[in-house]
Amino acid sequence: MIKKIINYTLNIVLIFAILISYYVSPEIVNASNPETLGDLRKEYENLLAEKRANDNKTEAAKAEIARKEAAINEANEGISDAEDQYEEAELAISLSNEKIASLEEETKKVLLYMQQMQGQNAYVEYVTGASSMTELIMRAQAVNQVTGYIQTTTKNLEEEIKKNEQLKIELKEKKVQLENQIVAYQAAISEQYGNIEEYSKFSESIEEKVTSAKNLYENYKGLCSENAGSTADSVLLSSCTNVPVNSGWLKPLNSGVISSPKGYRTHPTTGQVYSFHNAVDIAVSEGTKIYAAAAGVVKGIYEKTKCGGNKVYIQVSVGGKNYTTYYYHLLNIYVKEGDVVTQNTVIGTVGGYSTSSLHGGYDTCSTGAHLHFGVAEGWYKSSPPNSKVIVPPGFKNSVGYRFYSRTDYYGN
């Protein structure tokens, strides 16, 4: 019973796996396992589209930051205006209070005068001393107008004070609102900077992939044109190159010691600080045989160059990945471009001493006998970009690391 259940479960899993493989987009399958030149082109174009989309996101984030910064400037101007208006309102309130105080003094004087006139019948005499009824009325009205004016003016000033007090409250609220907006804008800006940082990290990664995919496509395109006579998308990659497949790496020398690791250093002959050393230097006697670290095709040979002397570039495929191996400061070169080499092929001998300009030679970038051995991801016919250079597999990237056989593999 248990056996039947297990068999039934396995059948269900198998059917599910078949269905999944059936519905998976062929474009995705080909992108991860390219078989034709068209697969490589699509993979490069897809990566390029990802990069452009990421660049657009970065530009959008920068534009949003610019908008928020402009809004912050506007809000700060609003706060400044509100503070100015607040001061103006306070000044207006102060002036109104001064005027009210002055009017209160005037009112007191008028009332005192009226009381005095009434007590001495002067007010009555003033009013009744008119020569006609019209003058009598005018004199009475004049007194009332003075007191009425004071009352009206005082009331208006009090209303102005109320308005300015309300304005002060509104301006305070406006200032708080603008300050809150600024905080929100600053938070939004911080978020966008965080996004840009993420986009930047992704961009660095995708740029390398785009460059690698482009180089791979262009290299294969050249190989397909040369070996298959076509650059059509349908051309099989297997028909374009005769690069042997390697399962692993061997050392290029039977023994040696690292005298300079891969990475930044002060150049030993030019004195340039932070010069990038794109390989490991292996100190060994001049004339020592150099073997191909991996089987492949010789794609570049450069003789008696000013810096590096005799150079050999070999394109290889190890573990399903493409690499370029390169060997500098050779005394002799035993291969030519287009040769297919194995891991037992002697490609040349170590130079660096007699070939050095310090000892009468032509190579200005060597001070003694050694092999400059480098490995880069991807296929190249000459010096690869620094971003693609790796520590040669099986080597410890430190001065003094010594190996005693070609199979002496250093594991990290």
Short note summarizing the structure:
By secondary structure, the chain is an alpha+beta fold.
Question: What descriptive keywords fit this protein?
Answer:
14 strands, two-stranded antiparallel ribbon, 5 helices, 412 residues, disordered N terminus, twelve-stranded mixed sheet, 52% helix, 17% strand, alpha+beta
Oligomer: single chain
Give the uncertain stretches in residue-range form.
Answer: 1-32
Describe the main β-sheet briefly.
12 strands, mixed
Share of helix among residues? 40-55%
Strand content: 15-25%
Shape: elongated
Distance between the termini: 49 Å
Q: How many extended strands?
A: 14
Mean of residue pLDDT? 81
Main structural class: alpha+beta
Rg on CA atoms, Å: 46 Å
Number of discrete helical segments: 5
The helix/strand series, from N terminus to C terminus, equals HHHHHEEEEEEEEEEEEEE
Describe how the helices and strands are arranged.
Blueprint: H1 2-23, H2 26-32, H3 37-119, H4 122-128, H5 133-228, E1 245-246, E2 256-260, E3 263-265, E4 275-277, E5 280-283, E6 289-291, E7 296-305, E8 309-318, E9 321-333, E10 340-341, E11 346-350, E12 370-377, E13 389-390, E14 402-403
Parallel strand pairs: 1-8
Antiparallel strand pairs: 2-5, 2-14, 3-4, 5-12, 6-11, 7-8, 7-10, 8-9, 9-11, 9-12, 12-13
Verbal overview:
With about 400 residues, the chain is an alpha+beta fold. Helices cover about 50% and strands about 15% of the residues. The protein contains five helices and 14 strands. It has helices at about 1-25, 25-30, 35-120, 120-130, 135-230; strands at about 245, 255-260, 265, 275, 280-285, 290, 295-305, 310-320, 320-335, 340, 345-350, 370-375, 390, 400-405. The strands form two sheets. Strands 1, 2, 5, 6, 7, 8, 9, 10, 11, 12, 13 and 14 form a twelve-stranded mixed β-sheet that branches. Strand 8 and strand 9 form a beta hairpin. Helix 2 crosses helix 3, helix 3 (about 35-120) crosses helix 4 (about 120-130) and helix 3 packs antiparallel against helix 5 (about 135-230). It is elongated and about 130 Å long. The two termini are about 50 Å apart.
